[in-house]
Amino acid sequence: MSSRPWFPHSGSGSTQPPTRPSYRPPHLRRLPHNPVVDTISEKLYELKVTTPQEEEIENAYSETAVESTGTDIPAAVASFEDMGFCTTALSDNIRRCRYVRPTPIQRHAIPVAMAGRDLMACAQTGSGKTAAFCFPIISRILVDKPQKTANNYNRSHQRSALARPRALILAPTRELSSQIHDEAKKFSYQTGLKVAVAYGGAPIVPQLRILEKGVDILVATPGRLMDMIERENVSLQNIKYLALDEADRMLDMGFERQVRKIVQQMGMPQPGARQTMLFSATFPAQIQRLASDFLTNYIFITAGKVGSSTNLIAQKVEFVSDMDKRDRLVNLLSSQDSPSKNSLILVFVETKRGADSLQDWLSRAGFPSTVIHGDKLQMERERALKSFRSGRTPILVATDVAARGLDIPHVAHVINFDLPRSVDDYVHRIGRTGRAGQSGLATAFFTKRNAPLAKALVELMQEANQEIPTWLDEFAKNSYGGGGSSRSSHYEGSDFGGHDFRNGSYGDYGNDDYSSQPADTAAYADLYPAANMPILNQAGGHIAYNFPYAANYPVPDPHASSSYGYGYNCGPVVASGWD
Ligand SMILES: Nc1ncnc2c1ncn2[C@@H]1O[C@H](COP(=O)(O)OP(=O)(O)OP(=O)(O)O)[C@@H](O)[C@H]1O
């Protein structure tokens, strides 16, 4: 739905194969403000749209338990009409999106945000979190007084203008930023608000040219935003609304230092003077603790169990040897309805090299496929996603760069060719299917090397009422920390996987997506009680542990996601302590 063409400015929704000879980032494509074009686009949208039916949404989420904690919690609201949005334009856009009824997280989070309260919200993948933060931002900005400068920028600097957005939405990957940008533009269509995007991998100057025209809502990846702030192209002084999508990832070790700097040291108003909203499908308690620095008197909402997958996804786990994986994949791809436009298949692998190699092999075996990972040029990444979305290549081989947030209609099957290290990453990966009330299938290839994940996987599958193979149960019982909850214990620092992370190809958030900053020591406060924290220096592929107690503590892997030595998710968080 994020890509449907009623909104003429959306750059990522074309169903055409990528035949364009020269690359232009989505936000630079022609933006016709032509009422005739708009009407035609809207008609096309009416014809083409295949949104989930109201009953599907209703059935899918009717049993979702929602828990809110905090003080003076605004009551949930059951319909968009009663949310108190200040403009009919927003309501019209919601209608155009064919959102008939709010999802549970929207019912609970939107009233909280509309009341101006800070918010930490955790809801299952595909359950509509983007709208839950976009709608209140749009509505509340419109109620605020207009900014003094006509276009909320000023030319105080000769070389370029200083943009002063009023809302900032941070996201971890370029593709997700671009998707949120498209969504926010759709939602604010004809409201007069200006929405812009800034992410790395694309030339900065064209992005600045857009910002110079004024921006109300800026969607950005941290790296590119910092660049712009440091170059004095963007000021955060006017930020009144801050949203962190995939907030646990944004405060994970790869990003925390940058995000903290942006939020606390670059002129943004302090908590209390701005409204802050954090959203994710997973929220480890340690990350909640870090995040609480950004919030004031906030309300904590969970829709469904924290970090659990949705019951809409049927999960299967197969025991295979590394050598048999490819054969097994081919069997899988051949045994079901052939991958097609309406039945896309997403295959996750661990490394960039592995992704290239598997995609090449699949293509040669006659399976139309494409590949996305952090070493690809941005142009190639966008092209791959388009080709996948359109069904031209209905198989996408991907690293974790595609694991979070991407909303691609018709992904019917997610295959974890390589399982991730953390169950949180597994939750996000499989969450690319089974979205907005639709059902989906997820298959994982489990090898001996995945033993440390067994316990967490079993817990997760049990929570989602999935059938657990006996052999997996055995692995869970015999694996690390048997008997305890592996979702609150660690398996990092073990001999898991035998990966050498100095090769730089382990884990993948790519260039600007995932900051190459050394691990932020503050994130380890719990695990490393000593004041001296580990400094992981990857220069030249050499790892240095500048930490006197390194021998005594498990060493976190800066490439592995959620790879705190102390665990990645505390399971169904009872929303106390950090709420
Ligand atoms: N109220 C609604 N009615 C129908 N569809 C909706 C509604 N809200 C959102 N959607 C659709 O549901 C899909 C998933 O929404 P979204 O991408 O915001 O999920 P999410 O919770 O952010 O997922 P993730 O955790 O993977 O980032 C989108 O296609 C969106 O357009």
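^ adenosine-5'-triphosphate complex. DSSP finds 17 helices and 18 strands in the chain. The longest strand covers residues 313-319.
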